[in-house]
Write a structure and sequence with these properties.
The protein is mainly beta. It has three helices and 33 strands. The radius of gyration is 24 Å and the shape is globular.
């Protein structure tokens, strides 16, 4: 009973209406934006809405020489009046943002490029696949959009999942219906509650969708057919991540993180439960996979991030503790893993060769919970030994912030030493007065 009293309260933070209801503009005034590895980059209490949506920060505002040591920097902030940001997707030089305003905005080269509108508000998930976009919505639908090859600004809805053809075909057979709450009957191939998460397995041509209806659905990208419905959890599915070695990971408000494998059964393939990696009181709120390192990360409502790595099998590697409140999103790239939280911060971790994780910095600047993250390699980075990444963070403060991260940035302890050395180099101690500052010392015979 204790679990049932806590989860609905947390669910409002995680998936439902925005937790911030004030109309006072000062509540969204941006404080100083900084990271632990740099001094504040910008500040101001004036309304962001009277300015251009994109505020670019001058590189002259960096307090330290970038060549002296690598750092994490805030590039800029995107602020719109139209809603809290719930989902992000980076594809090539495009950024897609989903909110509770029915609009999906498209940004290119850090400028507003285009946009398209759905018939349902609260875009909870966005993924890109070639010239197509998939968006998951509060109304239980997955909408499919086509990007015109002749006009990249043109996005046209070409259908929903399940397709109308499959919906009609399935509705004829009574065996295709399942009984849900309030004694209703719904088609098995359709989500009857909010679509909370989407994940692609491009190698196998599959799209996975998780929902508050407790199920995981598997869709074939070639014809948008629903191949399978998995009764995955006892409560809402909050996150799904297609992983390495054909594995699929799911996390739920029931406090479990599960691993599934797609295997051949007769003339078809099905997903079978392989492991229950985590079973706890706290809801599982975010998942991420680093396929190149075969590491799986799992964030929870208690602010912890558990991780597992593959040796001969999945083995628990430890817990990353950097947040005071729930972890709402995770992202990986290279040897970095990022966690966004309801405490309004983003922790940047680096996985070392030993398998241990070092906290490089804590990015601050958002005025609301950090709900989503997207990341891609910095195309302007020219140093092979120092890979750099562009990170987008979406928040319930209605903004998207853009950061540049370095894999070789010093950790917090190293940074303290380097800053002290930097200060010493920039401000050497005065001489003791025994030598004239106007003439160099002379060497005696």
């Amino acid at each position: 009973m204790g679990n049932r009293t806590r989860r609905p309260i947390f669910r409002t933070l995680l998936n439902s209406d925005p937790i911030h209801h004030s109309n006072d503009e000062d509540d969204y005034a941006h404080p100083e934006s900084s990271s632990s590895s740099s001094t504040p980059l910008a500040s101001g209490r004036s309304s962001p809405y009277i300015k251009s949506p994109w505020t670019r920060l001058s590189p002259l505002m960096n307090a330290f020489d970038e060549n002296y040591f690598p750092q994490h920097t805030l590039i800029g902030s995107l602020v719109r009046e139209e809603g809290h940001v719930y989902s992000l997707a980076a594809s090539g030089d495009m950024l897609y943002t989903g909110s509770d305003s029915k609009n999906i905005r498209v940004w290119k080269n850090l400028k507003e490029f285009s946009g398209f509108k759905s018939n349902s508000g609260l875009v909870k998930a966005v993924v890109a696949y070639g010239n197509k976009m998939f968006t998951g919505h509060q109304d239980g639908k997955i909408r499919v959009w086509n990007v015109s090859p002749n006009d990249a600004k043109s996005h046209k809805q070409i259908g929903t999942l399940p397709t109308l053809k499959d919906y009609i075909k399935s509705s004829v057979n009574p065996k295709n219906y399942v009984r849900v709450r309030r004694n209703r009957k719904v088609l098995r191939i359709k989500h009857y509650d909010a679509v909370s998460c989407l994940s692609l397995n491009q190698d196998r041509g599959l799209l996975y969708s998780g929902s508050w209806d407790k199920t995981l659905k598997v869709w074939r990208l070639s014809d948008f057919k629903c191949l399978e419905t998995v009764n995955a959890h006892d409560d809402a599915v909050n996150s799904v991540a297609a992983g390495f070695d054909g594995l699929v990971f799911t996390g739920s408000a029931d406090g479990t993180a599960k691993v599934w494998r797609r295997e051949l059964k007769g003339r078809s393939t099905k997903h079978f439960l392989v492991h229950v990696l985590l079973k706890q009181e706290n809801a599982v709120t975010a998942l991420a996979v680093n396929p190149s390192m075969a590491v799986f990360y799992c964030g929870s409502s208690d602010g912890a991030v558990n991780f597992w790595s593959v040796e001969k099998q999945l083995c628990h590697g430890g817990v990353l503790t950097g947040h005071k409140q729930a972890v709402l999103c995770l992202a990986t790239a290279g040897n970095l893993v990022l966690s966004g939280s309801a405490d309004k911060t983003i922790c940047v971790w680096r996985r070392e060769v030993s398998g241990a994780h070092t906290c490089l910095s804590v990015l601050t600047g958002h005025a609301g919970p950090v709900k989503c993250l997207a990341i891609h390699e910095d195309r302007e980075s020219t140093e092979e030994e120092d890979r750099r990444w562009i990170v987008y963070s979406g928040s319930l403060d209605r903004s998207v912030k853009v950061w540049r991260l370095s894999e070789n940035a010093p950790d917090l302890l190293q940074l303290k030493v380097m800053l002290e050395q930097y200060a010493a180099d920039m401000h050497p101690p005065p001489d003791d007065g025994r030598l004239s500052s106007s003439s160099p010392p002379t060497r005696g015979d």
